[in-house]
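User: Thanks for the earlier help. One more: Leucine-rich repeat-containing protein 28 isoform X3. Can you show the sequence and predicted structure together?

Assistant: Of course, both are below.
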Amino acid sequence: MASELCKTISVARLEKHKNLFLNYRNLHHFPLELLKDEGLQHLERLYMKRNSLTTLPENLAQKLPNLVELYLHSNNIVVVPEAIGSLVKLQCLDLSDNALEIVCPEIGRLRALRHLRLANNQLQFLPPDLGRSRELQYVYVDNNVHLKGLPSYLYNKVIGCSGCGVTIQVSEMKLLSFSSGQLTVFLPAEVKAIGTEDDHVLPLQELAMRSLYHTYHRVPKDLNFLSPISLPRSLLELLHCPLGHCHRCSEPMFTFVYPKLFPLRETPMAGLHQGRTTVGFVAYCCSTQCLQTFDLLS
């Protein structure tokens, strides 16, 4: 089986194939042959459905830089590496039927992505920036039973969310939650605190992070010169990739947000999912002013 796999990949490399089918191969690890030397620079579509993969390589974008479609349906993937955000040409990503509990924020920053399939996983929240790109038009998160909050950027997209929103005791979760009426949603793990209309002053750490971000993005400077000595490693990594951007004004946010919840019934999507799901749209705002002025349908 291994020799047959190597031969298939070698032929694809030699003949510069654009499509490679590795479905039903009982693969437990991403094939090293795909990552050898310069990788497969001409490959555009990779099919790896119904294997037993648990993760993806960090150098995926380096070795397969021209991927347009990546199909990983029905594996055992628990974590998707941040490096996936470097697949700048990716238009279709299928991670349905895996074991995902978290989707890294970098997926929300794939500017060419049009179709995203995350159905039948174990997701509890989605990245705040998911849907910010105008290119993303189709998002399917059906049957993620604990998922109750969809980023407000998605309200005018084609969404599949049937089977989401099963009731769960908040005390069972280790994530911050936010409630409005009878609906409670879980927030991303990076959120350390949430604000209300009465909280006009941001925490000092959040103010510092936003100030640093603007200082080193106003002019072309490399954030790598900030060593872990000058800033804790966890905050340094967060500075490179904010939690998300304000849904009202696009201000970057890091550990503190002002959430605003809109029930599904108040949006155009309600008719498509009536009676089949209990979810809402979450707007992530950066200040009390944005919180008060943000309107989902405006």
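User: Great, one quick takeaway?

Assistant: DSSP finds seven helices and 15 strands in the chain.
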